[in-house]
Specification:
- This protein is α/β, with parallel strands linked by helices and 331 residues long.
- It has a single domain, classed as Rossmann fold.
- The protein is 38% helix and 17% strand.
- It has a seven-stranded parallel β-sheet with strand order 3-2-1-4-5-6-11, sandwiched between helices.
- α1 links the parallel β1 and β2.
Length: 331
């Protein structure tokens, strides 16, 4: 049987596909290589999957939000889906709202229809810690109400969870939604803080520090994220009428995947400075529209159900990223 990975040329999608291939799975990856950030990085990730191309891995360049394009998947016996493709970015959603409606709403619905029509055994999909908005109670728990998103990106992710709940109820489709908390690491995204700070510090350029450096994030290393995704994929929620993580009695669970540790932005910068061997030139900026001040994941549900245990603090994860970044950039 075959596992479909959407957004396979993206940061998390690439790492999940590689892990699945390493353990002997057959993977079909789809991505339409949108230029939200340089396509050269996405292509480099795909090139790194080349050793598995052939029987084990097949890449299809298509838009998962286009039902007609998804017809190309009919010859494949899709057993499980890891739906990681999306239009990311909180600030970008303010200027390009229609891109989020297309990828995150229409695209999510198209994948659910594919899962239903192909009788997929389990679909794991990406949600986001952004759904919590500016919730005052920390750490964020999957049992908390998340009715007040403060960005369009967050609203689309909350909508995805609701649509998935409906499909699980109507069609008994097993699903797991994963609320990711600030993922970083090798092969990461250039628009994220860890990459931006590292590149500018090494270049001797000023960095913009939003929220005056007082923001806090639950920074989660990519290996810990992938471990959680794969554990979820291997353990579909049962259709037994019991209440699942997140409150559903349908075969649908919601989990936080974070490091279970909230770090001040100023401390993150200090760790990056140490790994780069030079100090940052800091330009203090106010909070940006759509940004939340603090994130902190309560991971008790995924620990209880799947045995998830993050193992990488930023003191180890950041130096690993900086080392990779230097190699990737030829520094």
């Amino acid at each position: 049987m075959t596992i479909l990975v959407t957004g396979v040329a993206g940061f998390i999608g690439y790492q999940v596909a590689r892990t699945l291939l390493d353990r002997g799975e057959t993977v079909v990856g789809i991505d339409n290589l949108t230029p939200y950030y340089p396509v050269t990085l996405k292509q480099a990730r795909l090139d790194a999957l080349a050793p598995w191309s052939g029987e084990a891995f097949q890449f299809l360049n298509l838009d998962f939000a286009d039902p007609a394009a998804l017809e190309a998947l009919k010859p494949h016996e899709i057993d499980r889906i890891v739906h990681l493709g999306a239009q990311p970015g909180v600030r970008y959603s303010i200027e390009h709202p229609m891109a989020y409606a297309h990828s995150n709403l229409t695209g999510h619905l198209a994948m659910l229809e594919l899962a239903r029509s192909q009788r997929v055994k389990h679909m794991v999909y990406a949600s986001s810690s952004s759904v919590y908005g500016n919730a005052k109670s920390l750490p964020f728990r999957v049992e908390d109400r998340v009715d007040h998103p403060i960005s369009l990106y967050a609203a689309t992710k909350k909508a995805d969870e609701l649509i998935s709940e409906t499909y699980s109820h109507l069609y008994r489709l097993s699903q797991t939604g994963l609320r990711f908390f600030t993922v970083y690491g090798p092969w990461g995204r250039p628009d994220m803080a860890v990459w931006l700070f590292t590149s500018k510090i090494l270049a001797g350029e000023p960095i913009e520090v939003f929220g005056e450096g007082d923001m806090r994030r639950d920074f989660t290393y990519i290996d810990d994220i992938v471990a959680g995704v794969v554990a979820a994929l291997d353990n579909p929620p049962p259709d037994d009428g019991t209440e699942k993580a997140g409150g559903s009695v349908a075969p649908h669970r919601l989990y936080n995947i974070g490091n279970n540790r909230s770090e001040e932005l100023s401390r993150l910068i200090e760790v990056i400075e140490a790994a780069c061997g030079r100090e940052a030139i800091r330009m203090m900026k106010p909070m940006q529209p759509g940004d939340v001040r603090d994130t902190y994941a309560d991971i008790s549900a995924i620990q209880r159900d799947l045995g998830y245990r993050p193992t990488t603090p930023i003191d180890r994860g950041i130096p690993a990223f900086v080392e990779w970044y230097r190699r990737h950039q030829g520094l």
